[in-house]
Amino acid sequence: MNKYWKKAAAIVAVAGIALSATACSSSATLVSYKGGKITQDEYYKELKSSQAGKSTLANMIIYRALKQQYGKKVTQKQVDKEYNAYKKQYGSSFESALEQNGYTTSSFKKNIETNLLTVAALKDIKKITSKQEQKAWKSYQPKVTVQHILVSKKSTAEDVIKQLKSGTSFATLAKKYSIDSATKNKGGKLTAFDSTDTTLDSDFKTAAFKLKNGEYTTTPVKTQSGYEIIKMIKHPSKGKFSDHKKEIDEQIYQSMEQDTTTMQSVIRTVLKKSDISIKDKDLSNVLSSYMSTTATTNSATSSN
């Protein structure tokens, strides 16, 4: 799940709208204790002077601006599907993972929705050029199907390779040695993937794409998960660009999502369209980090 937290932060971190900032004046008691009380006015004054309070308000504004402009492009079904995918991936440790990263179920779903809305805004505001597509096409690899055996020690991987060379079947060795419980009983077979895949280790993909049908890696492949032995089942020819345009465009957009400058530009455009007016002068600068680079961006654009 760490990859998700990083992605969420790169786009716009909505850490749960747990605090509600309101400019309405109220002396109503919020908390009472022996010998005193805390009023809503006091709480609001303290909240708006804190960085956490300002960040919360900024995130609320961004979320609502995105929702107003792109809400029709993101459904609750999409949010639930992505949420359930993470829940399934982490199983019984999901709740603790949420807690460790400061999320509740509600705030995590809102974060997913915000990211989906931001991607919708990105695709609407930033159009892909043919130059970008051709550049991505040069390094594109079509979907391949492989088997793999994941082990924790290099020496174990080397022993597995020796057994493969002596004629033992890959499926037999996967079942005996692989620590990937999801694939070991399936001969180590993975779902087909291409070079746009973001779930697999980059070193794993690089090693796999070098293999021809029937070949396997003769030296252990070190990844973040351990040591891998990979066998190519199906490595199709690259084919035509038109056959893979959808995947290529998605790869380009995924790259844009990881670029902070690009995503700030997208959020800035969304906010400008919303014509934001902040009534409390003490909070007038909560969006400055998103809006302050307008001049720089315009200058860079005009000079191209």
Automatic annotation (TrEMBL):
GO function terms (MF aspect): peptidyl-prolyl cis-trans isomerase activity
Keywords assigned: Cell membrane, Isomerase, Lipoprotein, Membrane, Palmitate, Rotamase, Signal
Gene Ontology annotations of biological process type: protein folding
Catalytic activity: [protein]-peptidylproline (omega=180) = [protein]-peptidylproline (omega=0)
Membrane topology summary: Lipid-anchor
Enzyme class (EC, first level): isomerase
Keyword Lipoprotein tagged: yes
Family matches, as InterPro entries: Foldase_PrsA, PPIase_dom_sf, PPIase_PpiC, PrsA_foldase, Trigger_fact/SurA_dom_sf
Domain PpiC: from-to ranges: 141-234
Predominant location: membrane
Protein's cellular compartments: Cell membrane
PROSITE patterns: PPIC_PPIASE_2, PROKAR_LIPOPROTEIN
GO CC term (a single one): plasma membrane
EC number in record: 5.2.1.8
Signal peptide: 1-23
Coiled coil: none
SUPFAM superfamilies: FKBP-like (SSF54534), Triger factor/SurA peptide-binding domain-like (SSF109998)
Family, similarity comment: Belongs to the PrsA family.
NCBIfam families in alphabetical order: PRK04405.1 (NF003356)
Function: Plays a major role in protein secretion by helping the post-translocational extracellular folding of several secreted proteins.
UniProt name for this protein: Foldase protein PrsA
Organism: Lactobacillus jensenii
Phylogenetic lineage: Bacteria, Bacillati, Bacillota, Bacilli, Lactobacillales
